[in-house]
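Appendix C. Worked example: Alginate biosynthesis protein AlgF
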Amino acid sequence: MNNTQTTLRRFTLGACALALGLGMLQAQADDGALYGPKAPKGSAFVRAYNASSAELDVSVGQTQLKQISPLGSSDFKFLPAGSYQAQVGNAQMAVDLEAARYYTLVSQTGAEPRLVEEPPFTSRQKALLRVQNLTDSTLSLKTADGKTAVVADVKPDGRGDREINPVKVGLALFEGERKVADLKPVTLERGEVVSLFVTGGQGKLSPVWVKRPIDG
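Step 2, the predicted output written as structure tokens:
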């Protein structure tokens, strides 16, 4: 092989390597656009749900969750596991966040903020309905006619889960046999967790579906 052929071969190999490297960088950039930055190992995940009637700002350590609309939620943000001081509106609270766990900070009018754990869901075939009962009553999620329980007998300050097939469903909230509220129909996608946060008390309950917000 002469010098010209050697130089050409080296140039071709270098160009291929550069193209491959750029392709990998582009793929990583596309992944970042789709999924956001990847959380480092040992991270905890936290979001906020605003059960009040005014816009809410939340911070957990240096992590900011800003301008959360009434009856709305932020998306999850990751931060190193550990102990933090959280600012929820005008209230402060200490929180302990464990690695690889998900949490929701809940702000309610006239009540102290709450930290609620949200166990992750890994199925890609089913959807998950979750009831987060932050009231003083035992509640059940049923079909609107009350004949079929979907998530039954969730105790006060408790949580109940049910895996279901992806579907658009209309359900109702019951206390025993008494219907508390008809709920807005909700569409469930594969791999998605949809949580029904129920706040309030003394017969004045506020059930709200909380899904991860969609950007754009």
